[in-house]
Amino acid sequence: xxxxxxxxxxxxxxxxxxxxxxxxxxxxxxxxxxxxxxxxxxxxxxxxxxxxxxxxxxxxxxxxxxxxxxxxxxxxxxxxxxxxxxxxxxxxxxxxxxxxxxxxxxxxxxxxxxxxxxxxxxxxxxxxxxxxxxxxxxxxxxxxxxxxxxxxxxxxxxxxxxxxxxxxxxxxxxxxxxxx
Amino acid sequence: xxxxxxxxxxxxxxxxxxxxxxxxxxxxxxxxxxxxxxxxxxxxxxxxxxxxxxxxxxxxxxxxxxxxxxxxxxxxxxxxxxxxxxxxxxxxxxxxxxxxxxxxxxxxxxxxxxxxxxxxxxxxxxxxxxxxxxxxxxxxxxxxxxxxxxxxxxxxxxxxxxxxxxxxxxxxxxxxxxxx
Lengths: 180, 180
Ligand SMILES: [Zn+2]
Ligand SMILES: [Zn+2]
Description:
Chain A is an alpha+beta fold and 180 residues long.
């Protein structure tokens, strides 16, 4: 993924544009102002017919070899729901039906908002896409807690478990304020 | 708001970068690739103690003079919830407590995802901020339906009404798929 701040070209200096009230990333070469906004990650906690949960072992940095949920940056020209389904297909060749929004996680420090949906697999066959080394279905008590790629994977798995036990349908948010 | 495609500087040509699978907006002057992602709008349907709903009459384009909910682009370094509260303060000097997520609207054509929260005003005094001509509290059956600024304001008011009547807490999404 692209990080303009590390770049030698394009927007890389902070200045306050005319008529604005805060510093924005601008390009000293051509004057372009890059209005930075949080990026949306869409992802899914998908369960098979026997309630096992789909995880993917990452084939790409960061956190190669660790387990994650199918998730990625939402593209233009798709809904959040379609983005979540697209990621599940790209990373795990999974076909699924979304059953509702599980959680919104705001990760202010890394400029992300994650929209995590719940889903059921419409067929239990899954296989690794190009960004996954392996995909696997886990019972909740067999999940690889010590080998999860990101804290939000841990949050989402626990929130999904709570939702699963309680029939709960309200969206969760960050477990604690200061983890934003 | 900034629209790079209309600009004579910065990223303005579509090319497929090395290692990518689709066209991205690139700058022909310096080679910078602008990964475009949907932008997050955070907003709020806030009710006073007598259940009246807070609207703002827009003082800025687009749709000057029309009524809208307090809403705006989420900034970096804030959570979605804080963004919604910030917008309510900036546009209506409203102090409120969020009571849950009302809806996620994906507006693919305009590259927005709107996260709309429900709220109650913690004090009933509100007043116009710099982007509002006027702010006002409306009973549901007195809402200015013909003078709403955007379709999503209409959606959110109706979804909030449904939620209010039913005690419903599950997040809504676009009313129909093809309005994305
Ligand atoms: Zn430039
Ligand atoms: Zn450039």
